[in-house]
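Section 5: illustrative case.
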């Protein structure tokens, strides 16, 4: 698949503000600072596409990108900020649930976690929602370069073991810094973007 022409389309606070629900889309989500924006930029191969967490404002929005006419990437707002007021947290919960539940073009969710701190309670919660709505999830354990190879493999195995009872969930290690796992991520996206193309 060719990502070279991927471009930013729009931002919205909720699913209702997104472009028409057609084609295929893959959404990225994760705790703030997990490395989601960097992962999107690395996978697409365009540095400034998704803004990293240093850019406030857009971070609470759903950011919508087009790879081509029928394929889209969705950057969902991060979660797990310690100081977010409760009403904003509640609105986030509602918006994400509605998006996962209603969006017909959503083919799968890439759940980004820092490999050093995987499966936090908020990650587990999100996983549960996605699976309740029948959404496939691929867990991207990023910042793999921060661990030794041995520690990385052990962590990947532990997370895979924890996820084993769940259907429709896959998992891999990844690094935006040294591109570890990039081929595997591309293969997954290729599969998701082509399987439902018929
Ligand atoms: P987001 O809030 O989830 O979008 O996270 P960002 O992509 O903005 O990344 C948060 C911080 O982690 C930034 O300082 C990134 O440079 C750093 N980071 C992201 N991915 C990696 C990675 O794979 N390896 C390393 N070493 N640092 C990373």
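Designed sequence:
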């Amino acid at each position: 698949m060719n990502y070279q022409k991927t471009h930013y389309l729009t931002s919205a606070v909720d699913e209702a503000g997104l472009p028409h629900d057609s084609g295929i889309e893959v959404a990225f989500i994760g705790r703030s600072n997990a490395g989601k924006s960097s992962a999107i930029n690395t996978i697409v191969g365009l540095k400034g596409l998704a803004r990293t967490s240093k850019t406030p404002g857009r971070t609470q929005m759903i950011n919508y990108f087009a790879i081509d006419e029928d394929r889209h990437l969705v950057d969902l707002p991060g979660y797990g900020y310690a100081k977010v007021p409760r009403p904003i947290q509640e609105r986030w919960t509602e918006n994400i649930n509605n998006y996962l539940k209603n969006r017909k073009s959503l083919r799968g969710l890439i759940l980004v976690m820092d490999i050093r701190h995987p499966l936090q309670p908020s990650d587990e919660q999100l996983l549960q929602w996605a699976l309740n709505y029948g959404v496939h999830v691929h867990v991207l354990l990023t910042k793999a370069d921060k661990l030794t190879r041995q520690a990385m493999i052990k962590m990947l195995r532990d997370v895979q073991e924890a996820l084993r009872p769940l259907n429709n969930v896959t998992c891999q290690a990844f690094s935006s810094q040294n591109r570890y796992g990039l081929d595997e991520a591309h293969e997954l996206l290729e599969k998701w973007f082509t399987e439902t193309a018929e």
